[in-house]
Amino acid sequence: MGHHYGYVSERLISGGLLPQRRRERRPDATAAVPAIEGLDVEAMRSHFDFPATGRIVTNNAATTQTPRELVDLYRRLTPWYEGVHRGQSTASQRMTERFEESYDTIATWINAPSRRTIATYRNTTEAINAVMYSLLTEFRDGDNVVTTLVEHNSNFVPWYALAREVLPRFGRSVECRVARFDHDTGQLDVDHLAGLVDSRTKLVCVSGASNFLGSKPPLGRIRAIAHAGGYLQPTGERGSLLLVDAAQLAPTTLIDVQELGVDYLAFSFHKMLAPFGVGVLYARGPLLERSLPFLYGGDMVAEGKVGPDRVEYGELPWKFAAGTPNVLGVIASAQALRLLADLALAEDPPRFESRSPLCRADVVAAMNRVNSHVAGLTDRALARTGGIPGLHTYGPPAGVVRSPLLAFTVRGTDPRDLAAALDEQGVEARAGCHCASLAHRDLGLDVGTCRLSFAAYTNNHDVDRAVDALAAIVRRG
Ligand SMILES: Cc1ncc(COP(=O)(O)O)c(C=O)c1O
After folding, report:
1. Ligand 1 atom 7: the closest Cα is on which residue?
2. CA of 247 to the centre of ligand 1 (A)
3. Where are the alpha helices (DSSP H) in 229-359?
4. Nearest-atom index, ligand 1, CA of 62
5. If pLDDT is split at 50, 70 and 90, which confidence band does 399 have?
6. Mean pLDDT value of segment 401-413
């Protein structure tokens, strides 16, 4: 059924949500700071409410702010509010169409071949657990999983639990191996990882960007290592599966799952401007076709194919969408991607709320701009914090590719006191282990580190305010 949401587009145009707001920019106190070439950060900020509060939002690796349009979108969807896949009503069909189109947008964003390879979950953590549970029955006695000390607990604890707690109860012995990292540079020790991968490595699990060290491992090389291990998968294919935790990669880096050759890739939309509640699992189509679902129940079964002795599952991707989904959340998440492209490229026609497919070339251009913008902010922060006495930053030095964050300690100061002192000055940092418990422990950082992290809407003024506040706190002692 080809419904057109003319009312939405008209509202957008008459309400001027995108172009007019761009024209009538509402610069905050940072207006004097020149925008980094390529991305008009002040225009971007005018779509958010937080700048007006004076907050220096520098805890973006945890969660990003959401633009007004996405909150308003929930309101605009309510006249036709309905569930998906279960009603003859026009409202349900409209909502279903918008929901399903969201999968196409997400697929385009990461260059997945089609919506069939996309499953939505609550967040990255749940997506990784979905992989764990769907592969559970495939592990053979003597297999292993290789992960790293750099991981967020979301990409370590499931594998630890699988090997140490779940599979032993089925009488199967599977090892969880953990690759080291270089303490000075924060880079994954890829040679060590290569030494851990062998012909019994079913799966290699790495994060695309560390949320503590900021390092980004060479995924191409890791793909080759996983492949060379030669593990015999149940399909007859040779090589270990590769799972990439892209929670910190996706928000500011262009992702092409086909070029990366990953088998699984997971990320969360609440780190990419969308409201809380939706994460994505990309998986190679053939894997999804043959693997068991993680959740069973309604909506994931084939119409009319449920009997006491036989149940058939729905077509991909709905086989992996059991139960009533987060309909509005998924729509808003896909629209967050479209809006990000609009805000980064600032060229009409708007992609947000457009019924046209998202153009991959726009994604490439938008993410290149975002990436170079945040790289500039990170270099600036590294250069300016370099002069603060007693401050030590972890991870790669300035000039080396890294995610837009800095985790640091100041000699003689508890990171939690630092974060609290920064907060008194309006600067939002985060202290603790950031769920990167293994790496903190490995470095002997029991009380954790303090972290500043940037997003596409961060400007130089935010960085300078944060660094100046930090310098003043350290001077005061
Ligand atoms: C690298 C990495 N992986 C996984 C996660 C978990 O994300 P979520 O809490 O959205 O599941 C995070 C969140 O901070 C992260 O930084």
Report:
1. 124
2. 5
3. 257-260, 285-290, 327-345
4. 14
5. confident
6. 96
